[in-house]
Amino acid sequence: MDYASLVEEAILAAFELYVTGPETEELLWPRLEIITIEDGGVGLVQGPMLIEALNNQRMRWPRNPERWMFSAHAVRMLCATQKDRTTQELVHRF
Question: What is the pTM of this model?
Answer without folding.
Answer: 0.89
